[in-house]
Write a structure and sequence with these properties.
Helix content of chain A: under 10%
CATH class of chain B: Mainly Alpha
Structural class of chain B: mainly alpha
Strand content of chain A: over 45%
CATH class of the largest domain in chain A: Mainly Beta
Radius of gyration of chain B: 26 Å
Oligomer: heterodimer
CATH architecture of chain B: Alpha Horseshoe
Helix content of chain B: 40-55%
Strand order of the largest sheet of chain B: 2-3
Number of helices of chain A: 11
Distance between the termini of chain B: 90 Å
Strand content of chain B: 5-15%
Largest sheet of chain B: 2 strands, antiparallel
CATH architecture of the largest domain in chain A: Beta Barrel
C-alpha cells in the first residue's frame, strides 16, 4: 500500500505544473468547498481553457486580451460564468464554487442489459449510490439498502458478524421458491445460496458478505414487470443490479477511507440468577403437589446451587470491534480508464468468538481500441472468513439465554468421584452437566475452533463494437467462482462422553457460475420526433456446484483438517449439481417528442430446472409513460418542474428452486442391513415432469413529480401482483412414502402503495434536506389447491399458509387469560369458547409476518464544512413471534432452561391477576401433553422506530487543504441503532432467526428464537482523496 | 483486428451455444451410490437390494420406538423422564407435532412404499427366475402386512371397537401411488392385511436366513387373529408354528440376545464388522438402561413391579428390574435390555405359546395344552405349575402371565384393548380402553390434504 501511495504522489507532482505570466488560474470547488476534479474551464465560445486538477486547480494562458467570459462546467452542476477584462502581462485568479444541478431527472440509471435516462424510464426503478451504502457500518452491503427505497424491506438477521438480511421487494410472492430478489453484479446473476450449510450452528451463510461495499458505484432496485421483465423467469421477486466503480474522472485519483468502531448489543436478556431460579423452580414443584426436595437439573445439590451464580450472558458477550479500510485508485483518459481497489474489513461482534473478516481487491478497466470498439474488463477477488460460534439454539449467547443455568459453575470446583472412588472430573475441568456441552457456552467456545471461509472471484470481460452508425453489439463472458470451506475442530473434552476424542470436520462447496451474453442495441431517430431503441439479446448461464465433506475422528487431530489428510474419511455426501438457463430477449423503446414513451419487453427462458413437459417459458411486458411537464400547458410552470405518469403490465417468473427438484433418484448403501447392500428410492420428493416456474402478473402505475425547480421531488405508485402456479415444497402425506413433494400450486396476491419524497427544505449556506419514503403492502394467499394449513410450514415456527391470510402467518392456539381462581392458562377453542385444553385442532391464523407499512426518514443538515445526518427507519404493524418464550417463560423442566424475569408476573394464589400462569413442572397443568406450546401469548406487535444512524461530519474546506497534499478530507462520527422505540418485550424488534430452508425464510422472517440482538455501534471514519 | 472479423467471431460464438433441447437436460449424476430412478432397477441383484431396504426401515420401526410408543399408552411403564415426545403419549394427548410418532409412522410407510416400488418394478427385471420373483414379492408383501398391522395397532381403535369394524382404520397403500391417502375402515384394513399375509404364507420359503419365512407369516397371523379375539384361527396358526419343530423355548429369560436364538421367528439383525458395531438395531430399548445411566428415561410402573414381585419365587423380578432409591423417591428401572448390542425378536415363540394357550383356554377345546403352554412359561420364571383350573380362571392366569412375560415389548396395550372389547372393565392407568387418547395422533403431514380424518385428541382424563 505504501508503494501505491508513493506512486500516487508522483503522479500528483507531475500534474502540478508551474504557472507562467499572463495566466488565468484558480480553484473550482463544489458547494461544500470540496475541489471539483476535471471541471472544464474555458473562454466562452472558444476551445481555449483547461480542466481542473486533483485539487480543483486550473491554469491556462488565454492568449488574448480584452473582455472575455470564463465558463466553468461540471457534470451534474449548474454552469457558472465570470466576466474578466484581460490585460497583457497581468495574471487573473478566479475561484468559483459550483452548485449542484438539482434537476435529478437527467440522471442515468442502470437497467437490465443497458442504461436509460431516468426521465424516460417507464418501469419502477430506484437508484441508490454507493456512497449511500457505505454511510454506516453494516454487516454486509445489502443491509445498507435498508430504508433507501420504498417497498424494499430489509430485515437485518441478527447481531452476528457478516449476518445476512432478509430482503423482500413488494411483499412476499413465493412460499418455497427463493423469495429474495435476483442479484446481478456488473451483468452477472451471481450465486446466492443461503443454505450451503443449512442452519448449522444456528445461522445461515451469507452469500453476499464477500462483496466489498466500497467497490459499489450504484445499486438499482428494479421493482415492477417493466423493469424486471427482461430477467424473465427470474424477475418475479425484483432485481437488484449492482454496478461496481470504474475510473471515471480525468486524471489520476486516490481515495482512502478508514473506519474504526466498537459495538455492543442493542438489548440484554433478563435471565434469572440462581436465587430467583431456585425459588421459582421450587414453587413449580410445590404447585404440582409433589413431595420431597426437587432434584435439580444436572444433578446439582441444592447446597452447590445456592452457592453458584454464573452470569452466562456476561460470559458470552464483550465489546465488539469493527474496522474497515479501503483504498482505491482510478485513472481516466479519452480512450481508457482504470480502477483498482483494495479493502479490508474486520468485524468482531459483541459475541465472543464471532467475527467476520474480509479482504478484497478489484480491478476494472475499459479500453477504446478504435472509434468503433471497446473492451472492458472487471475482476475481483475476495476472501471472507467467518469465525463462528454456536448461536441461537446452538450455543453461545443463545445457550446463555436457555440451557446454561445460573446454578452451573463454569468449572468444577473440586474433584468429582464416582461410586468406586475414581476421579471422573478434576477440579478446574469444564463443568458439563449431563455430559452436555451445550449447557456450558464457555466450554463450547474454548473447546472448538470453527470457521467458514469463502473465497470468491467475479470476473467479466466484454467486447463492444459499433459495426455501423447507431448499432452497438456487446458480447460478455463472465465467471463467478466461489470456494466455500467450513472447518470445525473439536478439541479433547468437547465430546464429554468420549473425552479423549478430537474431531475435525470439513464441508466444502465449489460453485462455478458461468455466464455468456450477446446484446445488440440499435438507436434510430426518425424525423427528429420518433426515437427508437431496439435491443435484442441472448444469454446462456450454467452453474455447477460440487459438494463434499470429510471427517477425521481420532485422538491426535490437532487442528483443522487439511484437504490431503490421509486419515480424513469422506462421508459419502459428495454430490454435484448443475443447472442452466438459455434465454432470448428483446426490448423496443419508443419515444415521441421525448414525452410520450412506450416500451415492450419479452424474454424466453429455458432451464434445466423445469420439468420435461415445461422446458421453456415466455415472459412479456409492456409499459407506457407520459412526461406531462414537456407539454405546452405545463412547460415553464413555476411550481411544477417535472411531471410524469407511467404504467406497466407484464409477466415475470420465479424459478429459484433446487437444480434437481423434478427428479427422483435411488441410493445404494453397502453394509446396511444384515451386512448386505440396500438400494432404495429417495423419499425426499417424487419426480415431477410438469414442474415449472411460478408466474407473476404485475400491474404498476406511478406518478413522478418535481416541484419548484425540482427542490421537491418524489413519486407515488401503486401495484398489483398476482402470483399463480406458486412453487410449493409440500409436506407430503407420509403414507405416500415421501416426506415432501414439489408442485406448482396456489395463488397469492400482493398489492400496495409506495410513496417517496425528497426535499431541499433550506438551500442556503445552511442546508436541510429530507428524504422520506413509506410503503404499504397487502398480501393474501388466494388459493392452496387441495391442501390444508398443514401442507406447508415454516420450519419449527408454526407459520403456515392459510387461504385468505398473508403468506406465512402464525398458526396458533389462542391464549385468553390466566384464570385468577386456579392460575391455569385459559385458551379459546375454534368457536371462541374458553377452555383449559390446549388442542392443535383449535389453531387459528394469528399474527402476520409482514408489517402493515414500513419506511424511513432521513434528515441531512449542512452548515459550511459541518454536516449532521439522522436516519430513522420504522415499521408499522406486523407481528413478532417470540418463539423461545414458550420455554423461557413456560414450564420448569427437569432438563432445564433458564427463565426470564418477566415470569415473576405469575399466578401464585387464588385471586391473582397475573400475566403468566402458575409455575409448574408438568405441561398437563397447562392443558397440554406437549411441554412447550405455541400460543398467541408469544405474539407481539412488531411496530418499531429505530435511529438507524446518527452521523456528524466535518469536511475540510479546499482552502485548508491547499498546503497539504490532500485533495479532499472528511472526518465523521457515526452511531448506529442508537435508539429503538418499541413495545416488543423481547430483545430486538428487528430480528429474524436462522432458517431451515427457503420456505422457512419466506414464511418466518418475524420469528426470534434466542436470536442475538443487533449490534449498536459507534465509529469514527476518515475519508481522504489525493 | 478488423471490425468484420470481430463481428463474425461474435456470430460464431452465438451459434455455438444456440438452442438445443438436450442442452437443458441436467440430471443428477449417476454414481456408484446414486442412480437415476428411471434406470435404477435392472437386475435380480437390484431387486434383492431393494428388498433388503424394505427390511432395513422395518427394522428401524422395531428398534424400540414402536414398542415404546405402545407401552406408553399402557400401564406397565412409569412417567418417562426428559422425553418430550414420550410425555404426551404417556398423558394420552399426543398431537400432530410429535416427532417420534411422526418418525415411526414414516418408517412404516417408507417400508411399504419401497415394497410397492419393488412390486411395481419387479416385472422390468429380466434374468430372474419366476420362483425367485414370487419369493421376493412374498417377502415384500409380508413386510407390507407387518407395517400396516403395526400402524393399525397404534393409530386405530381395535377390532371390535365398533360392531362391524366400520370405524376408521388407517391408509392402506397396496400399490405405488402419490394420490392422497384416505383412511379405510378397520374391516377393510384387516381384509387387505390378510390378503398380503395369505400370499406371504403360501409363497415364503421354509428357511430364509435372517429374513421372513412362512413361519413368520403364520406367527403374524396368530397375532393378527388374537387381536380380533378370533381364538380358533389364533390357536391354529400359533399351533402350526409351535408344531413346526423349527423353534424351541429358551431356558434363559433373555430372548434379547446378541445373535440368533431358538425363539426368534421374525427379528431384526444387528451386525458387527471387524469387531465394531456397524449396524445396531434396537437402540431405543436403551432408554430403559440403568446399568450405565442413573437417570433412565423409561422405567417400569410401580403397579407392574408389585404385580411381578408379588410371587417371591418369580425370577423375572430380579432378572428384569432394579429398584432405584433416590433420596427416598423409589422408582423401578428395567434390566431386560441391559446390553449394548442385540437382535430384537418381533415375533417369538413365547408369544406363540401364550397366544395358543389363551386361545385354547378361551375356546375350552384343549385345556390341557393350554395349561401345558402356560406352565412351560411359568417354570422358566421359577414358578410352580398351575393345575386344576379352567375356564375364565385359566384364561385370566394366562393373561396375567402374558403381561409379566412380555412386558415392555409393546404388547400390553393391545391386551388391555382386547379385554375391553370382550366386555371387561379394562383400563390403563385410569383411562378406559377405548378413550380417544388410547390411540396415537397422526403426524401433521397426513393432514396436509383436505379430507384426511385425524384422530380426536385427548379425552382420556
Amino acid at each position: 500500500m505504501k508503494r501505491l501511495l508513493q506512486f500516487a504522489f508522483i503522479c500528483f507532482c507531475l500534474l502540478h505544473l508551474p504557472l507562467a505570466a499572463q495566466t488565468i488560474s484558480g480553484v473550482i470547488s463544489d458547494e461544500t468547498g470540496q475541489p471539483l476534479i476535471g471541471a472544464a474551464v474555458k473562454l466562452q465560445g472558444t476551445s481555449i481553457g483547461a480542466a481542473t486538477d486533483l485539487q480543483g486547480k486550473f491554469s491556462f494562458k488565454p492568449g488574448k486580451t480584452g473582455k472575455v467570459t470564463l465558463e466553468v462546467s461540471f457534470m451534474g452542476y449548474t454552469k457558472e460564468y465570470r466576466s474578466l477584462n484581460l490585460v497583457a502581462g497581468k495574471d487573473e485568479t478566479v475561484n468559483l464554487s459550483l452548485k449542484p444541478n438539482v434537476k435529478l431527472m437527467n440522471e442515468v440509471v442502470v437497467v437490465g442489459y443497458g442504461v436509460q435516462r431516468k426521465r424516460e424510464v417507464t418501469g419502477s426503478i430506484v437508484s441508490i449510490s454507493g456512497k449511500d451504502l457505505t454511510e454506516l457500518p453494516t454487516p454486509s452491503f445489502e443491509n445498507g439498502l435498508q430504508g433507501k427505497a420504498s417497498g424494499l424491506q430489509v430485515i437485518t438477521g441478527s447481531g452476528a458478524a457478516g449476518s445476512s438480511s432478509v430482503i423482500r421487494i413488494r411483499g412476499v410472492a413465493s412460499a418455497s421458491a427463493g423469495g429474495d430478489p435476483l442479484y446481478v453484479v456488473d451483468g452477472i446473476p451471481i450465486t446466492q445460496d443461503y443454505f450451503l450449510n443449512g442452519n448449522s450452528g444456528g445461522q445461515n451463510n451469507n452469500p453476499l458478505a464477500s462483496i466489498a461495499p466500497s467497490d459499489i458505484e450504484s445499486v438499482e432496485v428494479l421493482k415492477d414487470a417493466a423493469a424486471t421483465g427482461i430477467y424473465g423467469s427470474r424477475g418475479a421477486n425484483g432485481v437488484i443490479l449492482i454496478t461496481t466503480k470504474r475510473g471515471k474522472k480525468k486524471g489520476f485519483h486516490v481515495d482512502l477511507s478508514t473506519r474504526q468502531g466498537v459495538s455492543t448489543p442493542t438489548a440484554l436478556p433478563n435471565m434469572m440468577n440462581n436465587t430467583e431460579f431456585l425459588q421459582m423452580y421450587e414453587e413449580a414443584y410445590v404447585n404440582d403437589g409433589r413431595l420431597g426436595v426437587p432434584a435439580l437439573p444436572g444433578n446439582i445439590s441444592w447446597e452447590d446451587a445456592r452457592r453458584t451464580n454464573t452470569d452466562w450472558v456476561k460470559e458470552a458477550i464483550g465489546v465488539g470491534y469493527q474496522q474497515n479500510t479501503s483504498l482505491s485508485m482510478g485513472k481516466g483518459a479519452d480512450n481508457y480508464n482504470i480502477f483498482g481497489s483494495f479493502a479490508q474489513q474486520n468485524d468482531k461482534s459483541y459475541m465472543l468468538g464471532n467475527a467476520y473478516n474480509r479482504t478484497s481487491g478489484r480491478v476494472n478497466g475499459d479500453y477504446k481500441f478504435a472509434k468503433w470498439g471497446k473492451v472492458s474488463l472487471g475482476t475481483s477477488l475476495s476472501q471472507g472468513t467467518n469465525l463462528l460460534q454456536g448461536m441461537g439454539w446452538s450455543g453461545g449467547l443463545g445457550a446463555a439465554m436457555s440451557t446454561a443455568l445460573p446454578i452451573y459453575p463454569i468449572y468444577y470446583e473440586k474433584d468429582v468421584l464416582n461410586d468406586d472412588g475414581l476421579v471422573i472430573h478434576k477440579a478446574g475441568d469444564y463443568f458439563l452437566p449431563s455430559n452436555d456441552i451445550s449447557r456450558n457456552p464457555v466450554a463450547m467456545r474454548e473447546l472448538r475452533d470453527w470457521r467458514s471461509r469463502e473465497t470468491r472471484t467475479l470476473n467479466n470481460i466484454s467486447l463492444e463494437i459499433q459495426p455501423i452508425k447507431d448499432l452497438y453489439i456487446r458480447g460478455t463472458g463472465s465467471l463467478d467462482y466461489m470456494a466455500w470451506r467450513q472447518d470445525e475442530y473439536q478439541k479433547a473434552g468437547y465430546d464429554a462422553n468420549n473425552p479423549l476424542l478430537t474431531k475435525a470436520y470439513r464441508r466444502s462447496f465449489d460453485v462455478a457460475n458461468f455466464n455468456m451474453n450477446l446484446v445488440a442495441n440499435y438507436l434510430k431517430t426518425l424525423k427528429e420526433k420518433h426515437d427508437f431503441n431496439f435491443m435484442l439479446g441472448t444469454e446462456y448461464q450454467d452453474s455447477k456446484t460440487k459438494h463434499f465433506s470429510s471427517t477425521k475422528n481420532e485422538t491426535s487431530a490437532t487442528g483443522y483438517l487439511s484437504s490431503d489428510d490421509p486419515l480424513a474419511v469422506s462421508d459419502n455426501n459428495a454430490k454435484q449439481e448443475e443447472w442452466n438457463f438459455i434465454s432470448y430477449f428483446g426490448r423496443v423503446k419508443y419515444s415521441y417528442k421525448k414525452r410520450y414513451l412506450a416500451e415492450l419487453v419479452g424474454r424466453r427462458d429455458g432451464s434445466s430446472k423445469f420439468g420435461k413437459n415445461n422446458k421453456y417459458g415466455f415472459f412479456p411486458s409492456a409499459s407506457l409513460g407520459w412526461i406531462l411537464s414537456e407539454e405546452a400547458f405545463l412547460k415553464g410552470n413555476k411550481i411544477i418542474s417535472f411531471l410524469k405518469v407511467r404504467s406497466s403490465y407484464g409477466l415475470t417468473g420465479n424459478s429459484n428452486i433446487p437444480a434437481y427438484a423434478q427428479y427422483n433418484v435411488f441410493y445404494k448403501k453397502a453394509n446396511a442391513y444384515n451386512g448386505e447392500t440396500i438400494f432404495f428410492p429417495d423419499a425426499a420428493s417424487p419426480s415431477n415432469p410438469d414442474l415449472k416456474w411460478e408466474t407473476n402478473l404485475t400491474f404498476d402505475a406511478a406518478l413522478e413529480f418535481g416541484l419548484l425547480n425540482d427542490r421537491i421531488s418524489g413519486d407515488i405508485g401503486i401495484y398489483n401482483k398476482d402470483t399463480r402456479d406458486m412453487l410449493l415444497y409440500i409436506s407430503a402425506q407420509n403414507n405416500t412414502g415421501f416426506t415432501n413433494a414439489w408442485a406448482n400450486v396456489g395463488k397469492v396476491n400482493n398489492r400496495g402503495i409506495e410513496f417517496s419524497l425528497k426535499a431541499h427544505i433550506i438551500d442556503r449556506k445552511f442546508k436541510w434536506n429530507v428524504d422520506f419514503n413509506i410503503a404499504r403492502n397487502v398480501n393474501e394467499l388466494t388459493s392452496l389447491g387441495d391442501y390444508t394449513e398443514d401442507a406447508v410450514s415454516g420450519g419449527t415456527n408454526d407459520t403456515r399458509l392459510v387461504v385468505g391470510r398473508p403468506i406465512g402467518n402464525n398458526y396458533l392456539v389462542q391464549f385468553s387469560h390466566v384464570d385468577p381462581a386456579n392460575g391455569k392458562p385459559v385458551y379459546f377453542d375454534k368457536n371462541g369458547n374458553e377452555t383449559y385444553t390446549w388442542d392443535v385442532a383449535n389453531r387459528v391464523s394469528a399474527g402476520s409476518i409482514l408489517p402493515d407499512a414500513f419506511g424511513s426518514v432521513k434528515n441531512d443538515f449542512r452548515y459550511g464544512p459541518f454536516d449532521l445526518s439522522m436516519f430513522w427507519v420504522f415499521v408499522l404493524g406486523g407481528d413478532i413471534y417470540d418463539s423461545s418464550s414458550k420455554r423461557q417463560l413456560g414450564t420448569f423442566d427437569t432438563d432445564g432452561w433458564n427463565h426470564r424475569t418477566d415470569q415473576f408476573d405469575r399466578w401464585r394464589q387464588p385471586g391473582d391477576e397475573a400475566k403468566y400462569p402458575l409455575l409448574t413442572t408438568s405441561s398437563t397443568a397447562y392443558g397440554s401433553g406437549t411441554p412447550w406450546i405455541n400460543t398467541t401469548l408469544w405474539v407481539h406487535d412488531g411496530t418499531f422506530a429505530r435511529l438507524r444512524s446518527l452521523s456528524i461530519g466535518y469536511t475540510f474546506p479546499a482552502k485548508m487543504l491547499e498546503k497539504s497534499k490532500l485533495g479532499s478530507a472528511r472526518i465523521s462520527l457515526v452511531g448506529t441503532n442508537l435508539i429503538t422505540l418499541t413495545k416488543f418485550p423481547g430483545l430486538d424488534p428487528e430480528i429474524a432467526r436462522d432458517f431451515e430452508n427457503a420456505t422457512d425464510r419466506n414464511m418466518s422472517p418475524n420469528i426470534t428464537y434466542l436470536t442475538s440482538p443487533q449490534q449498536k455501534t459507534f465509529s469514527i471514519s476518515v475519508d481522504i482523496g489525493f | 483486428m478488423k471490425r468484420s472479423k470481430i463481428l463474425s467471431a461474435i456470430i460464431l460464438l452465438s451459434v455455438l451455444y444456440s438452442c438445443s433441447k438436450e442442452f437443458l437436460e441436467k440430471k443428477p449424476e449417476s454414481t456408484d451410490t446414486q442412480i437415476n430412478s428411471d434406470e435404477a432397477i435392472k437386475t435380480a441383484q437390484d431387486l434383492r437390494e431393494l428388498l433388503n431396504s424394505v427390511y432395513d426401515v422395518a427394522a428401524n420401526l422395531y428398534g424400540g420406538q414402536a414398542q415404546n410408543l405402545m407401552e406408553l399408552l399402557g400401564d406397565d411403564v412409569g412417567l418417562p423422564v426428559s422425553q418430550t415426545d414420550y410425555l404426551p403419549v404417556y398423558y394420552r394427548k399426543s398431537d400432530i407435532f410429535n416427532g417420534t410418532i411422526g418418525g415411526r409412522y414414516k418408517d412404516a410407510y417408507l417400508s411399504i412404499y419401497r415394497a410397492n416400488v419393488l412390486i411395481m418394478k419387479k416385472d422390468e427385471v429380466s434374468e430372474i427366475s419366476e420362483a425367485e420373483k414370487i419369493k421376493i414379492e412374498a417377502e415384500a408383501r409380508f413386510l407390507r402386512a407387518l407395517n400396516h398391522h403395526a400402524i393399525l395397532r397404534m393409530f386405530a381403535q381395535p377390532p371390535g371397537f365398533t360392531a362391524n369394524n366400520s370405524h376408521p382404520g388407517i391408509v392402506m397403500r397396496m400399490k405405488y401411488s402419490q394420490d392422497a391417502g384416505v383412511r379405510s375402515t378397520l374391516a377393510e384394513c384387516l381384509a387387505l392385511i390378510l390378503s398380503d399375509l395369505d400370499f406371504a404364507e403360501q409363497n415364503l420359503p421354509d428357511d430364509n436366513g435372517a429374513y421372513a419365512t412362512k413361519w413368520s407369516a403364520k406367527a403374524l397371523k396368530a397375532r393378527f387373529y388374537l387381536d380380533q379375539n378370533k381364538f380358533a384361527e389364533a390357536a391354529q396358526f400359533a399351533g402350526e408354528v409351535l408344531n413346526s419343530g423349527k423353534f424351541a423355548l429358551l431356558d434363559s429369560l433373555n430372548r434379547f440376545t446378541a445373535g440368533a436364538n431358538s425363539e426368534q421367528i421374525f427379528y431384526t439383525v444387528s451386525t458387527f464388522v471387524q469387531d465394531k458395531i456397524s449396524d445396531e438395531r434396537g437402540g431405543d430399548f436403551l432408554r430403559y438402561r440403568s446399568d450405565n445411566n442413573d437417570n433412565p428415561s423409561m422405567r417400569a410402573s410401580e403397579e407392574l413391579y408389585n404385580f411381578i414381585a408379588f410371587d417371591t419365587l418369580d425370577k423375572r423380578k430380579d432378572n428384569w428390574f432394579r429398584v432405584i432409591d433416590k433420596a427416598g423417591i423409589v422408582t423401578y428401572a428395567v434390566k431386560k435390555f441391559d446390553r449394548s448390542f442385540m437382535w430384537i425378536p418381533i415375533l417369538h415363540l413365547t408369544e406363540m405359546k401364550l397366544t395358543r394357550a389363551e386361545a385354547l383356554a378361551a375356546l375350552g377345546t384343549d385345556v390341557s395344552t393350554a395349561l401345558n403352554d402356560l406352565n412351560e412359561i411359568r417354570h422358566r420364571a421359577g414358578l410352580d405349575s398351575l393345575s386344576g383350573i379352567s375356564g375364565v380362571d385359566l384364561v385370566n392366569a394366562i393373561r396375567d402371565e402374558r403381561r409379566k412375560e412380555m412386558c415392555f415389548e409393546g404388547d400390553r396395550t393391545m391386551q388391555i384393548k382386547r379385554k375391553g372389547v370382550l366386555g371387561y372393565d379394562s383400563q390403563s392407568r385410569g383411562a378406559i380402553w377405548n378413550c380417544p387418547g388410547m390411540v396415537l395422533q397422526f403426524p401433521g403431514a397426513e393432514n396436509s390434504v383436505i379430507g384426511f380424518q385425524l384422530n380426536p385428541t385427548g379425552g382420556c382424563e
